[in-house]
Design a protein that fits this description.
Elements (H helix, E strand, L loop, with lengths): L15 H20 L10 E6 L5 H12 L3 E5 L12 H8 L5 E5 L3 H11 L3 E5 L5 H15 L6 E5 L5 H12 L3 E5 L8 H14 L2 E5 L2 H5 L4 E4 L12 H8 L6 H6 L5 E4 L10 H10 L8 H4 L6 H20 L1
Helix pairs in contact: 1-5, 1-13, 2-13, 3-4, 5-13, 6-7
């Protein structure tokens, strides 16, 4: 499959077969890494990483993956470039496109990464925007396939705020891959209706299903995967915590939720997670709201059903596959 020169902005842009190719290629790179087989096949190439939002997993994954492939990396944090401030997105794209072989962007609106891709003339990869998080999707589906051996027909339940990048991306990915997607949350936090309609159309061809429900018992019944994310996204004001806690606490992933799912069900989270008081924000939430756990209980997070660290590792392997497929 030839994906050279393609941008990786959202999974709406790819066919089910192309998405499965990324997943399988990720697994191949993981095996090579584990076996100590060198795969520095992109020597001489250079990539730029633009981070308007900070990151642990995404940055480390891109840097380690790039080094494994033999590439050189330039990291640009919010103070390290003039993008959108003194220089337009279009001009930044045309400058970097003449110096680098690929650009990663992690930041705010999807329109920014789309404009970068339009003018750069080289592959652009979306490391996260407000609307989509496609590199996370390849890692997530890779992790699920490692556990179950297949994807089609699995029941995937997302709990929490399903309006933004994670809820959107997971719904699109499940629709493309023939999985049964459930957004189990307060109706205030249901995904955008236009995107829901798009996914339902895709599902007609793939055998997937799209369900939105406020009923935790029905929504999580016989689930194969229970997934959640932090309730307040990066860049949102702290003032929204009170509203989110009130609306989403009934959708916390806890022992009762996991017991309602299949015995073989797994728990997933893209991290970071507020499951204890060992973070600054966790302590602040405790002081303000007297809560020791947020979107997931520590009991579930640390359980044998939790695959969150396998999932985190797979970010590196999947990003490696994405860069390789679009550059080689």
């Amino acid at each position: 499959m030839n994906l050279k020169g393609r941008n990786f902005l959202k999974l709406k842009d790819f066919t089910p077969e192309e998405i499965l190719y990324f997943i399988d290629l990720s697994s191949e790179f993981k095996q090579k890494k584990k076996q100590g087989i060198a795969h520095d096949e992109l020597k001489g190439k250079n990539i730029a990483l633009i981070f308007e939002k900070t990151s642990t997993r995404t940055r480390c994954s891109f840097e380690v993956a790039a080094h494994d492939l033999g590439m050189h990396v330039t990291y640009l944090d919010p103070s390290g470039s003039q993008i959108g401030k003194k220089e337009s997105i279009r001009d930044t794209a045309r400058v970097l496109g003449r110096m680098y072989d690929g650009i990663e962007y992690r930041g705010f609106g999807q329109e920014i990464v789309e404009e970068l891709a339009k003018y750069a003339g080289i592959p652009v990869w979306n490391g996260l925007t407000n609307e989509f998080h496609p590199t996370q999707m390849i890692a997530d589906m890779m992790t699920i396939k490692e556990r179950f051996g297949y994807l089609k027909g699995l029941k995937f339940v997302y709990m929490g705020d399903a309006r933004y990048n994670m809820g959107n991306s997971l719904m699109v990915t499940c629709a493309k891959l023939g999985m049964d997607f459930v957004a189990c949350t307060n109706k205030t936090y249901f995904p955008n209706s236009e995107l829901v309609d798009y996914c339902k159309e895709v599902a007609k061809d793939t055998g997937a299903s799209i369900t939105l429900t406020e009923d935790v018992k029905e929504g999580t019944k016989d689930a194969d995967i229970i997934y959640t994310d932090v309730w307040v996204s990066m860049g949102e004001p702290d003032t929204v915590w009170a509203t989110r806690i009130q609306g989403l606490m009934p959708y916390q992933v806890n022992k009762k939720v996991m017991e309602n799912a299949k015995e073989t069900a797994i728990f997933m989270h893209c991290l970071p997670a507020f499951h204890d008081l060992e973070t600054v924000i966790g302590k602040e939430i405790y002081d303000k709201f007297d809560l020791t756990e947020m979107e997931v209980t520590d009991e579930v997070f640390e359980s044998s059903q939790s695959v969150v660290f396998q999932e985190a590792e797979n970010r590196m392997h999947s990003i490696k596959a994405i860069m390789y497929a679009t550059l080689k």
